[in-house]
Amino acid sequence: MANTDPRDDQSLLAQARLAGLDKVVDAAPEDVLVAARVVETLRAQFKPCEDLTRELSPVMSVKE
Amino acid sequence: MDLHWLTAVELNAGYISKKFSPLDVMKSLIERADRLDPTIHAFIQIDRDAALEQARAAEQLIMKGQISGALHGVPYGVKDLIDMAGQVTSCHSKVMSNHVAKHDAVVLRQLKAAGAISLGKLALHEFAIGGPAFDLPFPPARNPWNIKHHPGGSSSGSGAAVAAGFIPMAIGTDTGGSVRNPASACGLVGLKPTYDLISRQGVYPLAFSLDHVGPLTRTVKDAAWFLDAMVGKVPGQGPDSYAASVEHGAKGLRVGFVRHFHENDMQADPQVSAALEESVRVFRELGATVVDVTLPPLSLFNDTQKVILMSEGWAVHSRSLKERPMDYCQMSRRKLLTGAFLSAGDYVHAMQRRGELIEAVNQVFQDVDVLLVVNSMDPVCEIDDQVQVVRTYGRQARAAFNLTGHPALALPNGLSSKGLPLSMQILGRFWDEKTVLRAGAAFEQATDWHQRHPSL
Fold first, then answer.
1. CA–CA dist B365, B297 (Å, integer)
2. Is the pLDDT of residue A60 over 50?
3. Residues pairing with B408 in the sheet
4. Which residue, among B306, B317, B119, has the nearest Cα to B204 in the 3D structure?
5. Under an 8 A CB cutoff, do A47 and B300 touch?
6. Of A45, A57, A64, the CB nearest to B430
């Protein structure tokens, strides 16, 4: 979660188009921007572990 | 006798003693739903003919002295993202309007084997994420305690139908609290079992590693019976059944109270806090030891859960969002599109954090048997007050345990000044639903919140 810089609307919509979201960018650009801003806020809040070499949580490991 | 307020356990006893039959009950529930559901909107579809036919068959078996299972002739409802062979699994969405299921979900097969009868498919938030919303093919379910309010979600129809007395139990799913939220809003018992205890096969996914299937009922004992059936055990039979665990009381239990979630990490409504303090008092009176315990901050759980939910939800919906985005309601679209802006690295970092948080919860369970945790931070708000819906929806301590996978039971512990239900959660160690149900049943027997019903 390194990138916390707020980005302008056009670059966010361009990123959405790169992800194949042309239809929704054309029909409901505001929805795309709302989603992008939610992620920006979440990125700013989220704290990764100190140890980035830590293995992922193996979800099935809860079965002991 | 009000057949519609009887629990599954009471129905079972009434059938065996021949006080009433499955057909009597089914007719009564269908009449009630036909009369009241046009304002509550709990059901997407009521399967009147099939339910009556099965109830008639169940009655005939009883007359012959044959009971097909512990839930023989007991009606239930199904959140409409769970496959029922030959029927549309709508997910409450235009996107799925032509999706006819080929097979029953495994959990439905288990309930059929126990003799339960489905009365129909229940409303939800679109794909278990978008709601309450008014731009969908079906109206949103409303709260039977006050139809101006929403019934929680995403298993909104499941909560509304059980609280309204249309069915004694319903299946819900829970990815960020979607069984426990309607349980909270509707004054019900809602169980999110340990991750993977109940099969998800045939259940439309929202986020694979967070999705849980669970029961909504009006009592803890019914939840235990329902859980037994959902995992293929015989309810009420044998010391190994979940149903047997509810008889053991709370004496000697060590309860950890996670006070900082609702006092420091978020500030709960004073009525919610007061109900929790009273619940602590009840547990002490029952002979349990209650001590404050500390987990990592609630925001760390919630943020980590969101990254995973958004990433996995995007994986499920990316194709439809590219091809037919306007067939989703706006709320779903906005929530599901978030995943397009997350990276693989974000997901990995969240999964690393997840492991750390699971270890932290396990650590606390070395000193206590169960945790007492706030459910919703606020009484439920009005359904068309979008500002309050958005403000209150994230003010909860449910998603934390979708992230960690620990079993969590929601149950009522009060009423607000406006007469709306309040709720708490009891958490347990992995696979220790029995202790969770034991603690919940002891609390329930010492209080009368489960006996309150909405005036309809």
1. 17
2. no
3. B192, B427
4. B317
5. yes
6. A64
**Residues of chain A in Cβ contact (below 8 Å) with chain B:** 1, 12, 15-16, 19-24, 27-28, 31-32, 34-36, 38-40, 42-43, 45-49, 51-52, 54-60, 62-64
| Cis bond upstream, residue B235 (ω within 30) | no
Two structure tokens written together for B48: 């009147």
| Count of Cβ atoms closer than 10 Å to residue B170 Cβ | 31
Q: Which two tokens stand for residue B218?
A: 């009006």
- Count CA atoms within 13 Å of residue B302 on its CB side: 15
Let me know: does A12 contact A48? Beta carbons within 8 Å: no
CA B427 to chain centre: 14
B406-453: pLDDT as tens digits:
999 999 999 999 999 999 999 999 999 999 999 999 999 999 999 999
Tell if the CB–CB gap between A62 and B348 is shorter than 8 Å. Answer: no
Q: Is B99 in contact with B22 (CB distance < 8 Å)?
A: no
| B245: preceding bond cis by omega (within 30 degrees) | no
Structure tokens at B403: 């992230």
In single-letter form, the type of residue at position B68 comes to S
Q: Does B299 reach chain A within 8 Å, measured CB to CB? A: yes
pLDDT band for A58, please (50, 70, 90 cuts): low
Q: Look at residue B239 in the predicted model and tell me its pLDDT.
A: 77
pTM: 0.96
Q: Does B327 touch chain A (CB under 8 A)?
A: no
- The closest of B108, B98, B112 to B173, measured between CA atoms, is B108
User: What gap in Å lies between CA B44 and CA B343, rounded to an integer?
Assistant: 37
Say if the Cβ atoms of B330 and A54 lie within 8 Å.
Answer: no
Strands B189-192 and B408-415 turn out to be: antiparallel
List chain B residues with CB under 8 Å of A49: 349, 352-353, 356
Contacts of A50 in chain B (CB under 8 A): none
